[in-house]
Amino acid sequence: MRSDDQARILELGELCTQEDPPLCNASCPFHVDLRGVCGAAAAGDFKKGRALLEQGLSLPRMMARLCEAPCRDACKYREIGDPIQTRQIADACMRFGAETKTRTFLPKRTQQALILGGGLSGLLATVELAKKGFRVHMLHSSETPAGSLEPLIPDVLPQEAMDGDLKQLQKLPVVFERVDPEKMDPQLYLDNGEYQAIFISDDQYRVLAERGQKIESDPKLRQSEIPNVFCSGQEALQPSFLGEAFRAKQAAISMDRFMQGVKMDSGRESEGPLPTKLYTNLEGIVPRPRVEPAGNQYTEEEAIEEAARCLNCQCLECTKACAFMQHYKKYPKTFIKEFHNTLNFTLANRMHNIVINSCAECGQCKVICPNDCDMKEVTECSRRIMIGDDKMPPSAHEFALLDMQFSNGEEFFTVRHQPGHAESKYVFFPGCQLAATAPDSLRAAYEDLANRLEGGVGLILGCCGAIGEWAQRVELFKEQLKKITAAWEELGKPEFITACPTCYHIFQTFTEIPVTGIWQVMCQIGLPETAQKGTGILSIHDSCGARNYKEVQDCVRELASRMGYEVEEPKFSGSETPCCGFGGLTAFANREVGTEMAAFAADRCQHRSLTYCANCRDRFAALDRPTVHLLELLYGEHELRSTGISLRRKNRISVRTAMLKELWKEEIMVAEPNFKLIIPDKVKAIMEDRMILESDLIQLFQKAEDDNSFILDVETGYLMASHRIGNVTFWAVFTKTEDGYVLENAYSYRMLAKEF
């Protein structure tokens, strides 16, 4: 399983194309960072732009004037308007950018290369080989090494551009020699042993071709049939400055390897123009026309203005929509690399486990990504590996997992036929979080369904197990589903009606239980009498659980419309909806990121948000964002404030107790402590932050009273007590008054002690 998960993580990483080059870079055989050049020029940083050009080109001044600019022809901007004038921007960078002073350390080479002929290819091969430390001897029969470039000076190629590029040769082991044309025949130098490799420039190749002497060469290695002779072959007869320069570089790389006696073809698959899958979204971009220079070349101001049109082509579609990725300033491929490396190093504390546990596993990225890259699956695989390696700290998800087990424990889990019925055609499964945050709405919804549906509507109170699935505690998740399935069978396998989109997804995906949403039921049987007739606009916030269920999304909108509301579709709605931070248990493992997720999701809504997930509504309300749950509109707005973890626990117990007493007429005994615990608001906030339940402290005080294990802090005068529950040790700091215990502070330590 581990190897399968690791392989899948790497496979998913290949789907993220953010690191693919933009079209301009990909079309350049030298892979010059033209996106970076334009970005630097747009910022007026011509020095940086020049440095990027010099990094990719051996003769950058000359190429900035001579290149045919396939980057311009490939430019993404061409789809909406005039392409970016990349060559002119490059030329401006070379003219206006300050030279970067660098020290050149040459390797010591004893071999010597011969360059036959000048021109662009001869000069470039000379520079490339000399920079590698080889002694280079160029023979040329033209007046200067410029060869075929001479007629272009100065109108097309300024003399200062050539001189500036060739200045770098002054400190390199290069000798230029003008010779008679008859001394330019390569046959004269094959056997003298002075030269270990020979390059025939395109200038000289054309001369030889006119004499009927055509030499073929390998199109990748540029090696001829004579092993130590290299040239462009018949491609030299096809005029192209860029092609000539690139072929010379290919030959120089091969000559370097040939003279060192290593394989010439190894690792050269990425040479030349490359394919790219980089996606760039052009939606909403208003095209601007290209800047026309007043003279023959761009001024600084003109170059800046033209470079500012560059789209800075990137994908980042998922990052724009995900607060988790925004928080870490990363995209899927970077996460995947880090996750993979982390999972393959033996680290005692797994440094990235917090990041791995911060993804909401909501699936939004896969929907948005043009290539279906899925961080949800990456995170699931990573968590499974960490759990299998026993490297997932218990504290990461323990509180949530225990809360799930509480919901499926004796204090909440309930299975009943409708009062007065021996059979159930339907069963209402509201989900644990609706009971925790909006118990009045839950009860109202059940009573409405029971009154209006024929055949009996049973009730199951419990948790679908999504928390176990998010945490990748596979066996624990299966246990929860097994319990729900057994309850369903006990009631005669009725159709499930759920009020939770996540439950809807879990049952649809992992069980054979027939499930529908209360939203679809309401669309079929009509609004309840209690439904509020409203006006105005509500901003829809879809649930992660409903991401792939358009039938759910459509019904929610239909119900809002029937009540008189206009629904606003905020950015990233429907299948692209962002998570509120509860999904994937982010809110438990990384509260900061979870809060940022909730704020991002809520703040894209221009009006009061309409939710149909209890967690979304509760998390928005906790940030004081105007929000309402659909069931509150259908059955009256009873709970408009946020709940805390202790109240959520109490709500589940109280709604179950009230329904069993009042609807099923059952006597339910609820144990009450024999003392009063007084918790000031400031301490409640501390408990919320530290995930300490009021019920945990009640157990602590009950044990302290039974054992008389109170501790007096003589310095502060406060009493203290502690109690271990599972893997958690709780501490309370308090005073004892006539009214009860007044809590001053509370702590918890979540750890698992093992013997070695």
What is the topological layout?
Layout: H1 2-13, H2 23-27, H3 34-42, H4 46-56, H5 60-66, H6 70-74, H7 86-96, E1 112-116, H8 119-131, E2 135-140, H9 159-166, E3 174-178, E4 197-200, H10 202-210, E5 229-231, H11 241-260, H12 300-307, H13 317-321, H14 323-328, H15 332-344, H16 353-356, H17 364-368, H18 375-388, H19 398-407, E6 414-416, E7 426-429, H20 432-437, H21 439-452, E8 457-461, H22 466-471, H23 474-490, E9 495-498, H24 501-510, E10 515-517, H25 518-525, E11 537-540, H26 550-562, E12 566-568, H27 586-589, H28 591-603, E13 609-611, H29 614-622, E14 627-629, H30 630-635, H31 645-662, E15 677-678, H32 681-690, H33 694-707, E16 711-712, E17 719-725, E18 728-736, E19 741-750
Parallel strand pairs: 1-2, 1-4, 2-3, 4-5, 7-8, 7-9, 9-10, 11-12, 11-13, 13-14, 15-19
Antiparallel strand pairs: 6-8, 16-17, 17-18, 18-19
Task: Please characterize this protein's 3D structure.
The protein has 33 helices and 19 strands. The chain folds into five domains: 2-15 and 317-395, no CATH class; 23-100 and 300-307, no CATH class; 112-260, FAD/NAD(P)-binding domain (3-Layer(bba) Sandwich), CATH 3.50.50; 398-645, no CATH class; 677-750. The strands form four sheets. A five-stranded parallel β-sheet has the order 3-2-1-4-5. Strands 6-8-7-9-10 form a five-stranded mixed β-sheet, with helices on both faces. Strand 1 (112-116), helix 8 and strand 2 (135-140) form a beta-alpha-beta unit. The mean pLDDT is 94. It is an alpha/beta fold and 756 residues long. It is 43% helix and 11% strand.
